[in-house]
Give the backbone structure.
Amino acid sequence: MRQVPLSYNLFVVNRSPSSHQEPLTLTVGLTGASGSVFGRALLTALDADERVSRVHFVPSENSLRVMAEELGISGRNGLVEKLLGRASAKIAQHAESDIGAPIASGSYPTAGMIILPCSMGTLAGIANGMAANLIERAADVCLKERRPLILCLRETPFNKIHIRNMGLAADAGATIFPVMPAFYNHPTGSEEMARQFVCRVLAHIGLPQPDAYIWKPGASEE
Protein backbone atom coordinates (compact mmCIF):
# COMPACT_ATOMS: atom_id res chain seq x y z
CA MET A 1 0.00 0.00 0.00
CA ARG A 2 1.37 3.39 -0.99
CA GLN A 3 1.99 5.66 1.97
CA VAL A 4 0.47 9.11 1.57
CA PRO A 5 2.96 11.76 2.75
CA LEU A 6 1.93 14.30 5.33
CA SER A 7 0.98 17.61 3.80
CA TYR A 8 2.35 20.77 5.37
CA ASN A 9 0.50 23.07 3.00
CA LEU A 10 -1.37 24.48 5.98
CA PHE A 11 -2.57 27.84 4.78
CA VAL A 12 -5.64 27.37 2.62
CA VAL A 13 -6.72 30.00 0.10
CA ASN A 14 -10.11 31.53 0.89
CA ARG A 15 -13.09 29.96 -0.82
CA SER A 16 -15.23 32.09 -3.06
CA PRO A 17 -18.19 33.56 -1.16
CA SER A 18 -21.44 31.77 -1.84
CA SER A 19 -25.03 32.77 -1.31
CA HIS A 20 -26.96 30.60 1.14
CA GLN A 21 -30.60 29.84 0.41
CA GLU A 22 -31.41 28.86 3.98
CA PRO A 23 -30.17 30.29 7.29
CA LEU A 24 -27.11 28.50 8.64
CA THR A 25 -26.42 26.71 11.89
CA LEU A 26 -22.80 27.03 13.04
CA THR A 27 -20.75 25.82 15.99
CA VAL A 28 -18.24 28.06 17.77
CA GLY A 29 -15.61 26.78 20.20
CA LEU A 30 -13.63 29.09 22.45
CA THR A 31 -10.62 27.54 24.19
CA GLY A 32 -7.98 28.51 26.70
CA ALA A 33 -5.55 30.15 24.30
CA SER A 34 -4.99 33.87 24.67
CA GLY A 35 -7.19 36.01 22.43
CA SER A 36 -10.67 36.06 23.98
CA VAL A 37 -11.35 39.35 22.20
CA PHE A 38 -11.35 37.44 18.89
CA GLY A 39 -13.93 34.96 20.16
CA ARG A 40 -16.15 37.78 21.36
CA ALA A 41 -15.88 39.51 17.98
CA LEU A 42 -16.89 36.28 16.23
CA LEU A 43 -19.97 35.77 18.38
CA THR A 44 -20.97 39.42 17.92
CA ALA A 45 -20.71 39.11 14.13
CA LEU A 46 -22.67 35.87 13.96
CA ASP A 47 -25.38 37.17 16.26
CA ALA A 48 -25.88 40.14 13.93
CA ASP A 49 -25.73 38.15 10.68
CA GLU A 50 -29.21 37.38 9.35
CA ARG A 51 -27.82 34.50 7.26
CA VAL A 52 -27.13 32.62 10.50
CA SER A 53 -30.11 31.27 12.41
CA ARG A 54 -28.39 29.33 15.20
CA VAL A 55 -25.00 29.32 16.89
CA HIS A 56 -23.95 26.53 19.23
CA PHE A 57 -21.32 28.05 21.52
CA VAL A 58 -18.95 25.86 23.56
CA PRO A 59 -16.48 27.62 25.87
CA SER A 60 -13.84 25.37 27.42
CA GLU A 61 -13.14 25.39 31.14
CA ASN A 62 -9.73 26.97 30.49
CA SER A 63 -11.29 29.70 28.38
CA LEU A 64 -13.22 30.90 31.42
CA ARG A 65 -9.95 31.67 33.19
CA VAL A 66 -8.56 33.46 30.14
CA MET A 67 -11.72 35.54 29.69
CA ALA A 68 -11.52 36.58 33.33
CA GLU A 69 -7.94 37.76 32.83
CA GLU A 70 -8.35 39.39 29.41
CA LEU A 71 -11.94 40.66 29.36
CA GLY A 72 -12.80 40.94 33.04
CA ILE A 73 -15.64 38.44 32.58
CA SER A 74 -16.08 35.79 35.26
CA GLY A 75 -18.27 32.69 35.54
CA ARG A 76 -19.97 30.51 32.94
CA ASN A 77 -23.57 31.45 33.80
CA GLY A 78 -24.97 34.00 31.38
CA LEU A 79 -21.67 34.05 29.52
CA VAL A 80 -23.18 34.97 26.14
CA GLU A 81 -24.93 38.00 27.61
CA LYS A 82 -21.71 39.05 29.34
CA LEU A 83 -19.72 38.77 26.12
CA LEU A 84 -22.25 40.55 23.89
CA GLY A 85 -23.56 43.01 26.44
CA ARG A 86 -27.07 41.79 25.68
CA ALA A 87 -29.12 38.59 25.58
CA SER A 88 -29.18 36.53 22.39
CA ALA A 89 -32.01 34.33 21.19
CA LYS A 90 -29.73 32.89 18.52
CA ILE A 91 -26.71 31.68 20.52
CA ALA A 92 -27.05 28.51 22.62
CA GLN A 93 -24.30 27.85 25.15
CA HIS A 94 -23.18 24.29 25.94
CA ALA A 95 -20.88 22.98 28.64
CA GLU A 96 -17.63 21.44 27.45
CA SER A 97 -18.62 18.24 29.23
CA ASP A 98 -22.05 17.98 27.55
CA ILE A 99 -21.41 15.08 25.17
CA GLY A 100 -25.17 14.72 24.74
CA ALA A 101 -25.50 18.08 22.97
CA PRO A 102 -26.95 18.02 19.43
CA ILE A 103 -23.60 18.97 17.84
CA ALA A 104 -22.03 15.77 19.23
CA SER A 105 -23.92 13.77 16.59
CA GLY A 106 -23.35 13.68 12.87
CA SER A 107 -27.10 13.33 12.38
CA TYR A 108 -27.54 16.94 13.55
CA PRO A 109 -27.00 19.22 10.53
CA THR A 110 -24.64 22.17 10.83
CA ALA A 111 -22.79 24.24 8.26
CA GLY A 112 -19.45 23.88 10.05
CA MET A 113 -17.42 24.89 13.08
CA ILE A 114 -14.99 27.65 13.99
CA ILE A 115 -12.66 27.41 17.00
CA LEU A 116 -11.38 30.87 17.89
CA PRO A 117 -9.01 30.98 19.62
CA CYS A 118 -7.81 27.39 19.34
CA SER A 119 -5.24 26.17 21.85
CA MET A 120 -2.48 23.70 21.06
CA GLY A 121 -4.11 21.21 23.44
CA THR A 122 -7.39 21.39 21.53
CA LEU A 123 -5.51 21.05 18.24
CA ALA A 124 -3.77 17.94 19.56
CA GLY A 125 -7.06 16.38 20.64
CA ILE A 126 -8.68 17.05 17.27
CA ALA A 127 -5.66 16.00 15.19
CA ASN A 128 -5.45 12.68 17.01
CA GLY A 129 -9.18 11.94 17.14
CA MET A 130 -9.45 12.04 20.93
CA ALA A 131 -12.99 13.52 21.11
CA ALA A 132 -12.45 13.92 24.86
CA ASN A 133 -14.94 16.78 25.28
CA LEU A 134 -17.71 18.50 23.34
CA ILE A 135 -15.37 20.85 21.46
CA GLU A 136 -13.20 17.97 20.24
CA ARG A 137 -16.22 15.77 19.51
CA ALA A 138 -18.03 18.49 17.53
CA ALA A 139 -14.84 19.07 15.55
CA ASP A 140 -14.50 15.33 14.95
CA VAL A 141 -18.07 15.26 13.66
CA CYS A 142 -17.27 18.04 11.18
CA LEU A 143 -14.28 16.08 9.90
CA LYS A 144 -16.12 12.78 9.50
CA GLU A 145 -19.13 14.47 7.88
CA ARG A 146 -16.86 16.55 5.59
CA ARG A 147 -18.09 19.86 6.98
CA PRO A 148 -15.89 22.97 7.26
CA LEU A 149 -13.73 23.10 10.38
CA ILE A 150 -11.64 26.23 10.92
CA LEU A 151 -8.96 26.14 13.63
CA CYS A 152 -7.76 29.63 14.52
CA LEU A 153 -4.56 28.80 16.36
CA ARG A 154 -3.01 31.08 18.96
CA GLU A 155 0.55 30.12 19.85
CA THR A 156 4.11 31.18 19.10
CA PRO A 157 6.63 29.84 18.50
CA PHE A 158 5.49 26.44 17.24
CA ASN A 159 7.38 23.33 18.26
CA LYS A 160 7.59 20.25 16.08
CA ILE A 161 4.66 18.60 17.85
CA HIS A 162 2.45 21.60 17.07
CA ILE A 163 3.50 21.55 13.41
CA ARG A 164 2.92 17.79 13.17
CA ASN A 165 -0.56 18.17 14.66
CA MET A 166 -1.36 20.98 12.23
CA GLY A 167 -0.39 18.66 9.40
CA LEU A 168 -2.57 15.85 10.74
CA ALA A 169 -5.57 18.14 11.19
CA ALA A 170 -5.13 19.68 7.73
CA ASP A 171 -4.86 16.23 6.12
CA ALA A 172 -8.08 15.22 7.90
CA GLY A 173 -9.89 18.18 6.35
CA ALA A 174 -9.49 21.08 8.79
CA THR A 175 -8.43 24.56 7.72
CA ILE A 176 -5.50 25.91 9.73
CA PHE A 177 -6.23 29.62 10.13
CA PRO A 178 -3.71 31.12 12.60
CA VAL A 179 -4.69 34.29 14.42
CA MET A 180 -2.55 36.66 12.37
CA PRO A 181 -4.35 40.02 12.20
CA ALA A 182 -3.62 42.50 9.42
CA PHE A 183 -2.03 45.90 9.95
CA TYR A 184 -2.37 47.49 6.51
CA ASN A 185 -5.81 48.78 7.52
CA HIS A 186 -4.20 50.72 10.42
CA PRO A 187 -6.36 49.29 13.24
CA THR A 188 -6.85 51.69 16.12
CA GLY A 189 -7.10 48.99 18.78
CA SER A 190 -7.58 45.33 19.60
CA GLU A 191 -11.34 45.43 19.01
CA GLU A 192 -10.97 46.64 15.43
CA MET A 193 -8.10 44.21 14.85
CA ALA A 194 -10.28 41.33 16.09
CA ARG A 195 -13.27 42.43 14.02
CA GLN A 196 -11.29 42.53 10.78
CA PHE A 197 -9.74 39.14 11.48
CA VAL A 198 -13.21 37.71 12.06
CA CYS A 199 -14.28 39.21 8.73
CA ARG A 200 -11.54 37.16 7.07
CA VAL A 201 -12.65 33.98 8.84
CA LEU A 202 -16.31 34.45 7.95
CA ALA A 203 -15.50 35.27 4.32
CA HIS A 204 -13.64 31.94 4.21
CA ILE A 205 -16.84 30.03 4.96
CA GLY A 206 -18.96 32.09 2.58
CA LEU A 207 -20.24 34.78 4.94
CA PRO A 208 -18.55 37.98 3.73
CA GLN A 209 -19.13 40.94 6.03
CA PRO A 210 -20.16 44.39 4.78
CA ASP A 211 -17.57 46.24 6.87
CA ALA A 212 -14.63 44.02 5.91
CA TYR A 213 -11.53 45.94 4.90
CA ILE A 214 -10.45 45.02 1.39
CA TRP A 215 -6.91 45.83 0.39
CA LYS A 216 -6.64 48.21 -2.56
CA PRO A 217 -3.08 49.04 -3.68
CA GLY A 218 -2.42 52.75 -3.49
CA ALA A 219 -5.53 53.48 -1.45
CA SER A 220 -3.47 54.78 1.48
CA GLU A 221 -1.84 57.33 -0.82
CA GLU A 222 -5.09 58.90 -2.00
Observations:
- The chain has one domain: 24-221.
- The domain at 24-221 is CATH 3.40.50.1950 (Rossmann fold).
